[in-house]
Amino acid sequence: MKKQDLIKALATKASSSQDAAGKFLNALIDIVTAELQKKDGEVNITGFGAFKVSNRAPRKGVNPRTKEKITIPAMKSPVFRAGKTLKEAVR
């Protein structure tokens, strides 16, 4: 499902216009992004899951083109962990 398909489904489910559903979805994405940019930012949606930031340690790697060994720097990465209700629904 692509973003436009999600907007159509959201508009249908909420009995609203696609424009309103699109604005709502964009606002949700902006809020989650802003919260994750904060130090120790986290967004928990009970029954659905949690968005968190994971700190990845520096590690060794290989450039596939030149076969040269490189060090991949430490970085932060967004992570989604599914909640119990979502996991059970998928199973």
Descriptive overview:
It is a single chain. The protein has a three-stranded antiparallel sheet with strand order 1-2-5. It has a two-stranded antiparallel ribbon with strand order 3-4. The protein has two domains: 1-37; 41-91, Irregular (HU Protein, Chain A). The longest helix is centred in the first third of the chain and has 20 residues, at 18-37. Strand 1 (43-45) and strand 2 form a beta hairpin. It has helices at 3-14, 18-37, 84-90; strands at residues 43-45, 49-56, 59-62, 69-72, 75-82. The radius of gyration is 18 Å and the shape is elongated. It has 91 residues and is of the alpha+beta class. 43% of the residues lie in helices and 30% in strands.
What number of domains?
A: 2
3D shape? elongated
**Rg from C-alpha positions?**
18 Å
Order of helices and strands: HHEEEEEH
The share of residues in helices is 40-55%
CATH superfamily (homologous) name of the largest domain: IHF-like DNA-binding proteins
